[in-house]
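In this supplementary section we document a worked example of the pipeline. Step one takes a protein sequence of length 155 as its only input; no multiple sequence alignment statistics are reported here. Step two produces a three-dimensional model, which step three serialises into structure tokens for compact storage. The input and output of this example are shown verbatim.
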Amino acid sequence: MAKKEQVFIAVIGAGKCSGKLKDLAEKVGKTIAEKGAILICGGLGGVMEAAAKGAKSKKGVTIGILPGDDRKEANPFIDIAIPTGIGEARNLVVIKSADAVIALPGKFGTLSEMAFALKLEKPVISISSWNVDEKIERIEDPEKAVVRAIDLAGK
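The serialised model returned by step three reads:
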């Protein structure tokens, strides 16, 4: 019997954020792990760290695509840290590596990742993030957003 192909879900959002946004990101990460998907993110703080923390709390797998050269820059909840040395250009690597994207509130880095996802025709689910295109699905419930992202990943 063939092994089911793994689904990679990118979680993008603010590198520094409120406790409320961290709680939301943690719920997203938990659900990704519960559904058996792999979480991929930028590997640093804020939304990225909270989502990875949530995934690890459910024994999920986390990947961090880092902007710098040092694996030690990754937050403590990243299993696989990939240092790129390419700064913000790593945002494209995060999106290229994902089957679907869940966008939480963030600034221009988040906006750039959403734009890359749209350009590459990757599904994007927004939870209160940028509303820049009709192709972005807006789902406020974190569990429903993850289920929809996995469904749209089509694996």
